[in-house]
Automatic annotation (TrEMBL):
One Pfam family cited in the UniProt record for this chain: Topoisom_bac
Location of the Toprim domain: 1-114
MF terms in GO: DNA binding; DNA topoisomerase type I (single strand cut, ATP-independent) activity; zinc ion binding
The enzyme's E.C. designation: 5.6.2.1
Basic residues bias (residue ranges): 879-900
Species annotation: Paracoccus liaowanqingii
Active site: Y294
Residues flagged as site, Interaction with DNA: H31, R140, R141, D144, W156, R296, R525
Name the UniProt record assigns to this protein: DNA topoisomerase 1
């Protein structure tokens, strides 16, 4: 029977069900070949010939396909309908050439959804492998190899701690680093807004904002100080106000188009908190189950039959008023028509999320999102009325505006509304009935609650003139009918995975199939961390980015990377030759590589230090040199790196001056350097910073005391606020509590690698609060230790259910209670009790039989007997123990090699490594 090959076993199972017993469907389990990770896999001297290698895990899958082809030489390649899927089919064909006889029938089929209709229609329209798509894959794979394999070693040698670089990943990292530096360079600007609570003649209240003053329209920063805001507040409170105009305008909102890969990842991040990788993994499983169309696409058009099915579903579920007169058509924005597929949509529009009852939580939530977006995309627009009310004083010196919105028909919003990354400030407030020419009365005490809350938050109150009251960030008039609020401009927000994908799409960097892996890779390399869903660059990421900008600026350029992506698209369209694109790229890239061959680490650090100088050494308030060390006032600050790859600012007078600080101070706080906290018992107590963080030290290192007492600062303690008393307490740990009331053994409290603890002999028990280490008393310590014993923590042996006596070979026989039922224990042998035998009824003979049977299955355990009671029986079984002798000899060999291996690893790092000390 014909052999059909797809990527995954789940997909194979679904397709085999549709095709029936006339076909044999097998899985390749993804790519079967790749470039071996060694020099020369892409031969730049021989027209970029590529040497492919079958992965070890793929050999058995290839063998299964070859075996199947012995019975029928009809091969149908049915991998995914994109560039990557075309490449997998090409690799399969190349790897199977030796198994295909002359005249073998090989064809390629693609389908956008794994449904019976889509699969059977695709099988009726076979084609050959699309070579331009394969060429585009070859070019992309070669480019990624040439950049990664040649640029990464440069980073390893010239920048300690750097891991690797990638063609697109490095550009994505630059986006995050650039944004972080924008945030750090941002200077907040103050401005004020003035508001009033007004009432209609009928007593209905509404809010209005001051928009003009002294006949002039107010811009954002026209009220820049509290003094200006106070004057504006007085102007509003001292005038009669009247409604000058009321304008109500109809408005509508059209639905969003259905999902493509990038918009699906963005919405999954916003609404479900899913990272790009998790989103695509869940989508892959939905696709393979036949529930959605192919999930790697840059197209937003929908098949005509799917549009009509969506309209039928809307009519059935929501009624005709939610159905527009004609279907909605969305223009495909794909850069390359050959790679444009249908949007991501359900394969069955009537299969609403509540009907499917998916068990996997991530798949259920993602399908719900896809179904709602698809259905909403074909629904009627939402209709609303937006009202603008202009209020003015008789002398036109004061003008206020009130805006509101009333929903007349919810339309597609009944099903779905797209999430927002940041507040867009849309005004959805409702307004009462307001008539032009009517009086607008100021409402007393309207802002009393806001004033109380502002005062309760604490802080310095704004100075208020006569007739007004001030609170932190707020001014109100005495009647509390109007208020002035203080604002500060905000820095640009850090990227989320959603906004990062959106930005990459805007710049033309990467493609749908690569977004998830790009964002994941830079996190896996520890170049970026994710905190509260925001992407923050680590020091390693900053250094790598600045290094690449300094020595390889073209290859982290947004325009260059986007243009290269366009060329790859042109290759897939058949408009460019892939080897020519590679030739032009390599000619310039190899020259850039040669330019870094003579660089030394110190030279690289100096260059990065200069490039980052405005960021690392901002101007001082007193106008002094920002590079002068604040601790010794003699050395200069410069950039250093540690063996761990972290970067920090240190003093040139090291080791005499051990001042250090991180590249950027967290939350705008002043960095902490080495400082003397005071004297205790004739010793100087100092706060210092080492490679593992801040610590306190008693005295200084000397020939007599090469390692003075030290103690790390516990987690949760602020090193900047540490005082002498706290430092002395830390250096005095472990703290003796007293002898245990039962055995008299000393109980101590201290802080170890696993956190705060109490210790009794060799037994430890953790305590939750670091501060309790200094206050815990005897009763509490005994309680904590007893609780640990009951829980059976580390080192707490469980009590036997029954003691059976001595084994003939020595050692006690015990009956123990286990997770899976009672068992009999002797030495290292554990034998489960039969179900019909209880611990109380077990005899010694039965126990010995169970132990012997278990030991026969595990002879290695049986040889490890207790040293006690060397009986004649034990002596008779000595031959089994002889096998242990050669094991000891063999075990010594790898142990002896370990030091050498460590030395070799240290030598392989290469170059000068600057330690922070």
């Amino acid at each position: 029977m014909p052999v059909v090959v797809v990527e995954s076993p789940a997909k194979a199972k679904t397709i085999e069900k549709y095709l029936g017993g006339d076909y044999r469907v097998l899985a390749s389990f993804g790519h079967v070949r790749d470039l071996p990770p060694k020099d020369g896999s892409v031969d730049t001297e021989n027209d970029f010939d590529m040497k492919w290698e079958v992965a070890a895990d793929s050999r058995k899958h290839l063998k299964a396909i070859k075996d199947a082809l012995k019975d029928d030489q009809t091969l149908i390649l049915a991998t995914d309908p994109d560039r990557e899927g075309e490449a997998i089919s090409w690799h399969l064909l190349e790897a199977l050439q030796t198994s295909l006889k002359k005249g073998a029938a090989v064809s390629r089929v693609t389908f956008n959804a794994i449904t019976k209709t889509a699969v059977t229609e695709a099988m009726a329209k076979p084609r050959q492998i699309d070579q331009p798509l394969v060429d585009a894959y070859l070019a992309r794979r070669a480019l990624d190899y040439l950049v990664g394999f040649n640029l990464s070693p440069v980073l390893w040698r010239k920048l300690p701690g750097a891991k690797s670089a990638g063609r697109v990943q490095s550009v994505c990292l630059r986006l995050i680093v650039d944004r972080e530096m924008e945030i750090e360079a941002f200077k907040a600007r103050e401005y004020w807004s003035v508001h009033a609570r007004l009432a209609t003649p009928g007593g209905e209240e509404y809010d209005a904002t001051l928009v003009s003053l002294a006949g002039k329209r107010l811009d954002r920063f026209d009220l820049a100080t509290a003094e200006q805001a106070a004057m504006a507040l007085s102007a509003v409170a001292s005038r009669d106000l009247k409604v000058a105009s009321v304008a109500a305008k109809p408005a509508s909102r059209n639905p969003w188009p259905p999902f493509m890969t990038s918009t699906l990842q963005q919405e999954a991040s916003r609404k479900l908190g899913m990272g790009a990788k998790a989103c695509m993994s869940a989508a892959q499983r939905l696709y393979e189950a036949g529930l959605i169309t192919y999930m790697r696409t840059d197209g937003i058009d929908m098949a005509p039959e799917a549009v009509m099915a969506a309209r039928d579903a809307i009519k059935a579920k929501f009624g005709e008023k939610y159905l527009p007169k004609s279907p909605r058509m969305y223009k495909n924005k794909a850069k390359n028509a050959q790679e444009a597929h249908e949007c991501i949509r359900p394969t069955d529009m009537m299969a609403s999320p509540d009907r499917l009852k998916l068990t996997a939580d991530d798949q259920r939530k993602l399908y719900d999102l896809i179904w709602k977006r698809t259905i909403a995309s074909q629904m009627e627009a939402a209709r609303m009325e937006r009202t603008t009310v202009e209020i003015a004083s008789p002398d036109d010196q004061v003008g206020l505006r009130a805006t509101g919105q009333v929903m007349l028909f919810d339309g597609f919003l009944r099903v779905y509304d797209q999430g927002r990354d940041d507040d867009e400030g849309e005004d959805g407030a409702r307004l009462p009935a307001i008539t032009q020419g009517e009086a607008a009365r100021l409402v007393s005490h309207a802002f009393d609650d806001e004033m109380t809350k502002a005062r309760d938050k604490g802080g310095d109150a704004v100075s208020a003139p006569a007739g007004q009251r001030g609170a932190p960030g707020l001014l109100v008039n005495d009647a509390a009918s109007s208020a002035a609020r203080q604002h500060f401009t905000q820095p640009p927000p850090r990227y989320t995975e959603a906004t990062m994908v959106k930005r990459m799409e805007e710049l033309g960097i990467g493609r749908p199939s690569t977004y998830a892996s790009i964002v994941t890779t830079i996190q896996d390399r520890d170049y970026v961390r994710k905190d509260k869903n925001r992407l923050i660059p680590e020091d390693k990421g900053r250094l790598v980015t600045i290094f690449l900008l300094k020595y390889f600026p073209r290859y982290v350029s947004y325009d260059f990377t986007a243009d290269l992506e366009t060329e790859l698209d042109e290759i897939s369209a058949g408009d460019r030759m892939w080897r020519e694109v590679l030739g032009r790229f390599w000619k310039d890239f190899s020259k850039a590589l040669e330019g870094t061959s003579e660089l030394r680490i110190t030279e690289v650090l100096e260059a990065i230090d200069d490039a980052l100088a405005p960021h690392l050494y901002p101007p001082r308030a007193d106008g002094g040199d920002p590079r002068i060390c604040p601790l010794c006032n003699a050395g200069r600050l410069n950039l250093k790196t540690a063996r761990s790859g972290g970067a920090f600012i240190g003093c040139t007078n090291y080791p005499e001056c051990r001042y250090t600080r991180p590249l950027s101070a967290p939350d705008g706080e002043e960095p902490v350097g080495d400082r003397v906290l005071g004297m205790d018992a004739g010793d100087q107590i100092s706060l210092k910073t080492g490679r593992f963080g801040p610590y306190v030290q008693r005295g200084e290192a000397s020939e007599e005391v090469p390692k003075p007492p030290r103690s790390s600062i516990p987690k949760g303690w602020d090193a900047a606020k540490l005082d002498l008393d706290q430092a002395v307490q830390l250096l005095a740990l472990p703290r003796p509590i007293g002898p245990h009331p039962e055995d008299g053994v000393l109980i101590e409290a201290g802080i170890g690698r696993f956190g705060p603890y109490v210790k009794h002999g060799s037994k430890y028990a953790n305590i939750a609060d670091v501060d309790e280490v200094f206050t815990i008393g005897m009763n509490r310590a005994v309680e904590v230790l007893a609780a640990k014993q009951v829980r059976g923590g580390r080192g707490a042996a469980a009590a036997p259910l029954r003691e059976m006596g001595e084994h003939p070979d020595g050692g006690p026989i015990q009956v123990m209670g286990g997770k899976y039922g009672p068992y009999v224990k002797w030495a290292k042998v554990n034998a489960t009790l039969p179900r019909d035998v209880t611990p109380e009824d077990l005899t010694v003979d039965q126990a010995l039989e169970l132990i012997a049977a278990k030991a026969a299955k595990s002879p290695s355990k049986a040889t490890k007997k207790p040293a006690a009671k060397k009986t004649a029986t034990a002596a008779a079984k000595k031959p089994a123990a002889k096998k242990a002798a050669p094991k000891k000899t063999a075990a010594k060999k790898p142990a002896a090699k370990k030091p050498a291996a460590k030395a070799s690893a240290a030598e392989d790092t290469g170059g000068d490594v600057i330690d922070e000390g």
